[in-house]
Amino acid sequence: AVLLVPGRPRRLAPVAAMLAIAAVWIVGAARALPAANAIKSARPFCAAVSARLARGGAVASYRLWAWRASYAFYLDRDVPNLEGPEALRDFLSGPGPRLVIVERDHAAEVGAIAGSPALATARIGSGEVALYGVRGAGWQRGQ
Fold first, then answer.
1. What value does the CA radius of gyration of the chain take, rounded to a whole number of Å?
2. DSSP three-state, residue 100
3. Which residue, of 16, 34, 81, 124, is most buried by count of CB atoms within 10 Å of its CB?
4. CA gap 127, 135 in Å, rounded
5. Terminal-to-terminal C-alpha distance of the chain
6. What are the backbone dihedrals phi and psi of residue 36, each rounded to the nearest 5 degrees, phi first?
7. CA-to-CA distance for 110 and 117, rounded, in angstroms?
8. Phi, psi dihedrals of residue 81, rounded to the nearest 5°
9. Dist. CA 84–CA 88, nearest whole Å
């Protein structure tokens, strides 16, 4: 009301306009970002990975982009990045359940070396990711 009184200084008008714009942006973001997060986030895929691992299992990624940290973050564990077929074979031959996260470009290579089809796949953002693995002590079936 003070802003509309004739003859009064209108110093608060720009501040009020900015607050209104910020409020509209915050409400819009609060509605839109959770929906976008379900599509772009690695969180649901990582929940599926965690469900497949028993205590002591190991997870690695294969030829992922060096700064791809979402898998380690959501799995709350170290996820080493394997850089070639020999490293992949060494990892898969280890004890216990061994899971490998791989993006679409190298999925066929990992599937051939693992000797099995993908255990799970997901779209994350504009890409696709797959999970391959070998069974070992502690593998949880049916998940």
1. 24
2. strand
3. 124
4. 27
5. 61
6. -70, -35
7. 9
8. -100, 115
9. 6
